[in-house]
Each structure stands twice: as C-alpha cells, then as structure tokens.
C-alpha cells in the first residue's frame, strides 16, 4: 500500500513532535537551571541558557549537604526491600496458585485487601511498635513495613497460574519435593514476573516519603526522597541548589530506567494484562 | 543453583548491612573519652549555620564533653520530638520553642530546679521575662536561649530616595512612607507575606497578634478557654492587614515568605516585617542599606509577637546527675556565648551578654534589643499550635479575598473555640 | 499440581514467611490503630477511652469535610484525565508515527522519578516570580499567574504535574492491552470504511475494557491516597484550600498529636476507598478480585 504523505501527515507529525518536546522539556529545564548561578535565577531579567554556566551548585550540594549519604541510604534500603519482597512474596503466591489448602480463598482475599489500606492508618501504631523493638532510626524500620507487597503476590500468582501443571507433575514424578519443584521448575520460568515484582518493589521503596520521614531521625540517615524535601526547607530560596539536588536525586532513577527499561515496561504491561 | 546462591549472598549482605546500621544507632555514652551530649535542634538555613558554628566552637574548646547534633526540617521537628519523648528515645538536650514547652510538662521534660541549684547555674544572669516564661507550676523546665520578636526592617537607601528621613512610628506613617517609596522608585512598599508557599503566611498572624496587644486586647481569654479577639480591636487589626494589600496597595497579592524575604534582600522593598532571625540573611546581602528596629506601635502602644527558643532536657530515663551536670554545662556555655547566637539575629537572654562589648559591637542587634521588653509570649495552652496555624489560614483568606472583617472574625472565633474544645 | 495429602502442610508452610511479616506489620497495627480511634491519646499521656466521640467530632468538623472535598476534587480531576491521556498516549505508541518509540520513552520516563524530584521541579516551573511558566507568559505580555498560590489554580496545577508524572504508567498498561488485539479485526473494519476514531471507539476501547477498568480502579485508589506532591508543592495552601484529607490526618496525628482523632479519620478514608473500589469493580464487571 503506497502511503500518501499528504499535508495531514506532516501536520500530525509536527504536532506530535511539539508535544514530545514539551513533555520532555521540564527535565531539560531542571538540568539547565542547576547550571545557573543562583543570582541569575532571581534577577529581573530572564536567562534561558545559563549566562555563566557553572557546576558550583553541584559542588555545594555534595560538600555541604548529605546528598551523597542519602543516595547510599536509598540504595541500601531499596535493594534490601526488593530482595526481601521477592523472598517472601514468591512462596505464598505459589501456594495460592498451585496448592489446594483450606482457607486459601479467605487468606487470598485478606492479602489483597491489604492493597487498599492507606499507609496513613499504620504510621502511628507502627512507630510505637518499632520503637519498642528499638529499631526507630535504623534502616530496618524503613524496610520491614514495605516488604510484604500484596501486588507482588498478585502478579506472581497470576503468572504462576499460567504455568502448566504438567511441568510440576513430571517433576514430582521424578521424585522432587514441592520445594524443589518450586525452586527448580517454577522460579526459572518466572523471571519475567519476578523481575516485575523486583522493579515495582524497588521503585515503591525508593519513592516512599511519609514513613521514612517519620521513622528516620538523623539527617544523615534520610533516604534521598526525604532528603530532597528537606532541601526545600533548609535551602528554600536557593533554587539552583535545589534543582541540582533534584538532578542528583534523579540520576540513579534514570540510570535504573536505562538499564531496565524494557523489563520495567514489559513488567507493568504484563501485570496489567494478567490483572 | 545460581539464583539460590545469589540470593543467599545478598541475604548475607543485607544482614551485615543491617547490623552495621543497628550498631550505628546505638549511642554509647559510657566509654573512655569525652562524654557525648546528644542534641536535637530545629534550626535550619541561616540559623542552622550559626548554631552549628557555636556547637563546633564548644566542641573545639572542650575535651571532656562533645556535643552531637542533628537538624530536622522545621515542619517535622515537633512530630519527631513528641514521638521520641513518648517512646523514650529523645536525646539529652533539645531546643524547644517556649510556646511548646507546655505540651511536654510535667512528665516529658526534666524539672531543672534541683540541678540548677546543685550546679550553681547562673540563673540571676538571665533577663527575667524570658526566664519566667520557662516556669510551669513553680519549676523551671527549660532555659531560654533567645527572644525573637517580630520587628520592622527598612531599606534606608530607598527611603532616602523618596525623601524620607525618619522611620514611621505608626500605621498611617507606615502607609504614607510605603506609598511614597512606591511612587518615587517603583519598589515594593511593604514586603509582607500573605500567602502559603513553602512556609505558611505566619507574618499575618504575628502582626494581627501584635496589633491586638498594642491595643491592650488579647488573643484568648484569661483562662485560655475561648477566643478574645472578636471585637473592635480585632476588626481594627484585621482591616489594617487587609488594607495594606487591597486599599493602599503597598503590598502585592500572593506574596509568599521566601519571595518577601528575597524582595527585601535584593533591595526591592522599602519595609519588611519578619522575626529578628532575618537579620543574618540581610547582612550578607550585597549593597543593602537597612536598619532593623523594634516593631512600632502600629495602632497602639508598642507590643510585638515574639517567640523564644529554649533549651530543655527530656526526662526520658532516670537521669544520672553527673550527666545532667554535663548537659547544664553545655546550656551554660551556649547561653553565655549569646553574642555568637546573635549573629543569627536573635536577642540573647543573659544580661552579661547584652552588656558585653562583643554584643554591642554587632551591627543592628543592639538597635532592637530593646524589643525584648515589649515582646508578648503566646498564650500558654495546648491548643495554641493548632489555633496558630488555623488562624494563619483564615487570615490569609481574609486578606486575599478582602472579606468582610466582622464576618471573618466571627468565623475565626467560632473555629478557635471549637478547636479549644478538642484539647 | 502435585497430588497427595501434603497439600495443606505445604500450603501453610509456603504462606508463613509472608504472613509473618504481613500480620506483624500490617494486620496488627491496622487493628491497633482502629482501637486507638476510640481513645483520646496524645502519645505523651495515657489513653483515655471515649467511645465514638472521635467519630462524632469528625462528622461535625468542617475541616474534615473540606479536606475530604479537596481529595475528592483531586480524584475527579486526575482520574478521567489520566485515563484519557494514557489512552491517547497508548494509541500514539501503537500508531504508525515514526516518533512512537521515542515517544514511549518520553511519556514514560517521568514515572521513574520520585515524587519529591517531580514536585520540586514543578514547584520551580510554577514559581510565581522566577518560574519558567510565568516568564513565558510575560514574554507574550500576560500577567504572571500564581499557579500554586492562587486558590483558583492550585489544585489544577498540582493535578497537571501529577499528569505529567504518572500518565506514562497508564500508557504502558493500555498499550499492552491494545497490542493484544489481533490485527484481523482492524483489517475487516477498515474494509468496511470505518474512520480512525470510529475504529478506536467501536473496536479498540471495548476490547481493552478489562484493562481500562483496572486502570480506573488503580487510579481512583491512588488519587484518594494523594499526599506527597500536594504537601511539597503547596503545603495545603493557599489558606488550606488544597489540604487533602491525608494531610489533615497527618497534621492531626503528628502536629497536634490527636492520635485517636487522626486514626478515626484514616479509617473513614479507608472505608470510603473500599466502597469506591467495590462499586467500580461491580461496574467494571471483573470476575476476579
């Protein structure tokens, strides 16, 4: 079929291009702002490109704030959360998908109901609880409440259900225990779903705001998400510094995205389809 | 299999990391070497820097005690402090606004009298008003570090350009001067914030509060059980605020705190109302000729809203008297070096400091130190925090919409009374 | 399925790790918090049992209603717009445009950034005196707008930032569903002479109905739980006109220490979310949970 590149075609393309550029622009602006000298930003005249581009804001961010420490904290906390989530979500999802046992449906409904609980409801009792374990102001207090991820269970359950029973049956006939079947047959086939859960839990943990704000007391223990909000309060009128902090904070997320772009997108897509 | 091995390795990694964190969280104060006094301060920004400098100086000059501190964003400070006090994890020493001490008395803060006496703490050196404000049921629960009232800043260069040589002493003069500067130079008349951005528009509440007391009115009744501002005084105060924006147009609409500070800092505004803490910021600005004076009696006698930062000791565990002695040493040192803290603009609370050459040599501060005498502390009630923030919202609304003052006040009174009932 | 009578045992064993954490850090505090809602508790003194008083108070608390309304406004603004925008993006990504691959990345990438990064960035773009938007307005001779400090605009500004941040997520979900539609269906309709939009409405949309209703439910739940971006961008202002219910719950619990009252409000919100989800579920016609 020969496609006539008529006027309408080009108009559409131009509109698309404009929309895309506008959509991308805030990120570009964030980076540009961070390269400005602070006073240029609050002067009456508007500079689009920095008149005197400088990395001074970044230097200041790294040397006079805890931003690097915050990044490290976030990486440790989010990685731990993600791994622990996998470890506990997978088995129960498998049980829901493949094992017949009494009370399964009630239990499943109970777990799914958890997705609708606003975290607000838990912060006060959780704070008092963690304090009685002497775990406030440690990374464990931030990690543990986030580890049991109902949506992870859901995604994995849907996926596991899609694996034909025949595979397990043959493993069983070969003398495998249920655990062996789970680890040697089911899990290797589920890397796609496992990756999705990993990514979701990582992002969830990284972006968590209210709970780490309450659970962590020392500024140097903050996660990056809380820390950047802290930036606003302490350096509120230093816009260039603020934005450079935002850029620094977004680099790991951007890198994460670059590496796992396909997996992230596939994972979300699959979650949607299975749902 | 490979996945299992990887998982096991990672588990090990997490476990060890968790241990490291757990270790880090435990504070050991019983060790060879200096005693550690842990400390929470709510100072951020400019205040934070000056305070850190004081702590650094303390640590540099003391080998037996070291202070370890941390800064929390202002919004969350009392959240964390209260929860920590309840849970028994508060540090040795905390900065508390005088208005908030009441919430933690008598159980959460240490009653200081026996310790003050035992250690010959120089109680007499303190200016009496702020010190007495730290007394509850006859006992001291905190030691005042400073007094920080709202004051008036004026850009002398702009005033001169408009041909004004004297500072205004009341509301009419203020408006006239602001208008003159605006007409002559195009600069902002009064940089007074009236909208919420990163910070709420507390200035409005502080001015309203000040003006009430200027007229010998009160915010709450003597027993703090009901609102007392819904009267002719309240109307006059509210109208004064509204007219600045809507009638005389010497303050723009939608001005938030940061922008208002910036406007004055960049020499773009003639007058600015803010707490004394802004002095430090303005000093550092290039080419800014300004003065800082006690708030003039705008519609009555001079009276100004003021807060006070105090130092208190959480009563979390049975306190070891030796440790309390160390903490008091810190408090003593910090308040005795009030001129360092004054660099942030605050008024020191010790007479010896106020009379010292070091303090007197500081620009601006001696000029408004007298404001401490006309500073009014907020009412001593648990409900004040909520009343204060709620009034900020309501005043912001009334100014932005130029609402009928009587109706606005009726609404504020009703709301405040309702709030008091819930405490 | 592995047959045999070990099912129950295995079933429970596999559930234990999850349930342990879940019960300890979700179920137990949930119940505990509910109990607290019947008490007057300011964390520093002992709890005082007051029965339903907290609930009675909140039903006559105008701030509760205004906060709930602000949350509802947010839900009403963002839900349809995020669904429509996500759908349009999904259509674009599945079109014949040469930009579709780049487009997918560009539309999705904001989702990857955390709330505070996005909020900081947009608060800067919308800053009244120095932000880019107002600079652009002044170049065409218009007056600066208080995007985040004018009560006319504030909730819309925050919603718009949220749109930019999360539309890509919906795009991915819907795009995947669209890709599942077999091309033969389109071929037959184009033979019948259907226009592009007719095809979209009559064929594409009905066939991805399940995904659409999933997006709807997820979106509604997420919007009811809004807190972070509003808090960081407007602080609930101006004069509390964008204060959402979760912010009010947070303030009551952690600024005024009315723990019982705060807990009561969060359970009301919880109940509302549950009811909405159940209703939407019924409407959407999902067979499973």
Structure description:
The complex is a heterotrimer of chains A (275), B (423) and C (289). Chain A is an all-alpha fold and 275 residues long. Chain A has a single domain, classed as Orthogonal Bundle (MetI-like fold), CATH 1.10.3720.10. Chain A is 74% helix and 0% strand. Chain A is built from 14 helices and no strands. In chain A, helix 1 crosses helix 14 and helix 11 runs antiparallel to helix 14. Chain A is globular. By secondary structure, chain B is of the alpha/beta class. Chain B folds into 2 domains: 140 residues, D-Maltodextrin-Binding Protein, domain 2, CATH 3.40.190.10; 201 residues, Periplasmic binding protein-like II (D-Maltodextrin-Binding Protein, domain 2), CATH 3.40.190.10. In chain B, 48% of the residues lie in helices and 14% in strands. In chain B, strand 4 and strand 5 form a beta hairpin. Chain C has 289 residues and is mostly helical. Chain C has a single domain, classed as MetI-like fold. Chain C is 72% helix and 1% strand. In chain C, helix 3 packs across helix 12, helix 4 packs across helix 7 and helix 7 packs antiparallel against helix 11. The longest helix of chain C has 32 residues. Chains in contact: A-B, A-C, B-C. The interface between A and C is large, with 93 and 91 residues.
Features of this protein?
heterotrimer, A: 275 residues, mainly alpha, MetI-like fold, 14 helices, globular, C: 289 residues, two-stranded antiparallel ribbon
How is the secondary structure organized here?
The complex is a heterotrimer of chains A (275), B (423) and C (289).
Chain A: H1 7-34, H2 38-41, H3 56-64, H4 67-98, H5 104-113, H6 120-132, H7 139-143, H8 150-161, H9 165-173, H10 178-189, H11 191-207, H12 210-215, H13 224-234, H14 239-274
Helix pairs in contact in A: 1-14, 3-14, 4-8, 4-11, 4-13, 8-11, 9-10, 11-14, 13-14
Chain B: H1 2-25, E1 35-40, H2 45-61, E2 65-68, H3 74-87, E3 93-97, H4 98-101, H5 113-118, H6 128-132, E4 135-136, E5 139-140, E6 143-144, E7 146-155, H7 156-161, H8 171-185, E8 188-191, H9 202-214, H10 232-246, H11 257-265, E9 269-275, H12 278-283, E10 290-294, E11 304-307, E12 309-312, H13 321-336, H14 338-342, E13 347-348, H15 351-354, H16 357-360, H17 365-368, E14 375-376, H18 384-401, H19 405-421
Parallel strand pairs in B: 1-2, 1-3, 8-9, 11-14
Antiparallel strand pairs in B: 3-12, 4-5, 6-12, 7-9, 7-10, 7-11, 7-13
Helix pairs in contact in B: 9-10, 9-18, 10-18, 18-19
Chain C: H1 7-36, E1 39-40, E2 48-49, H2 53-59, H3 62-93, H4 100-112, H5 115-125, H6 132-139, H7 154-179, H8 183-191, H9 196-207, H10 209-224, H11 228-234, H12 245-254, H13 259-284
Helix pairs in contact in C: 2-13, 3-4, 3-7, 3-10, 3-12, 4-7, 5-11, 7-11, 10-13, 12-13
